[in-house]
Write a structure and sequence with these properties.
The protein is mainly alpha-helical and 196 residues long. 58% of the residues lie in helices and 4% in strands.
Length: 196
């Protein structure tokens, strides 16, 4: 059970950590604005959420055996939701081009790495879109399956379908009252931003 959790988290971490994705900033002038800022911020929020989530008592009247079965799925859900909470920012907040601006990355067609290799882009350049706000949260949901994978979401859901629902609600920023993941991410996000 724990090995499934570990394998899922390691697989998920490999996607955003592969250059050039790992070099994107989290914001233009606020927190984690340097190269690699988005990846660093995502890792910080994921680890702090996981630490905080370890102290959360799982819901319902469950036997100790059932809690042990749910625990790795709970940890995965918390970690992955936190890791993916800003996943849409490169799509909604940034315009990525080659040096002369003739080639523009279309994130809905291919990931940044594939675009850079396919267009022989060894350096890319960023322009920040105006009025960004929180539009990235909706797009983040679109990308979760690419990152976590169907089998990962399925494994988490087998423990309790609410875990996947809570993940998606937390990532979108629209949690239900029962959602136990959202507040962990919000607090960890605030800590990460403050410490940067």
């Amino acid at each position: 059970r724990a090995s499934c959790c570990t394998a899922l988290c390691v697989h998920t971490l490999q996607w955003p950590s592969r250059p050039p994705r790992s070099l994107l900033p989290a914001s233009e002038t606020h927190h984690h604005r340097g190269a690699g800022g988005l990846f660093r911020h995502a890792i910080e929020v994921a680890l702090w959420s996981l630490q905080s989530g370890d102290r959360v008592l799982l819901p319902g009247d469950q036997t100790p055996r059932r809690r042990r079965e749910l625990e790795p799925r709970w940890h995965s859900a918390v970690f992955l939701a936190a890791l993916c909470h800003d996943l849409g920012k490169p799509i909604t907040d940034l315009i990525v081009t080659n040096q002369d601006g003739t080639k523009v990355w279309d994130p809905f067609c291919e990931d940044l790495y594939t675009w850079a290799i396919g267009n022989q882009v060894d350096r890319y350049f960023l322009r920040w879109r105006k009025n960004r706000g929180t539009s990235h949260t909706s797009v983040s949901l679109l990308l979760v399956e690419r990152i976590v994978g169907r089998s990962g979401l399925g494994w988490i859901s087998q423990g309790d379908p609410n875990l996947v629902t809570w993940m998606m609600e937390a990532i979108s920023g629209h949690p239900s009252q029962e959602n136990m993941i959202h507040n962990l991410i919000v607090r960890s996000d605030q800590v990460s931003v403050t410490r940067d």
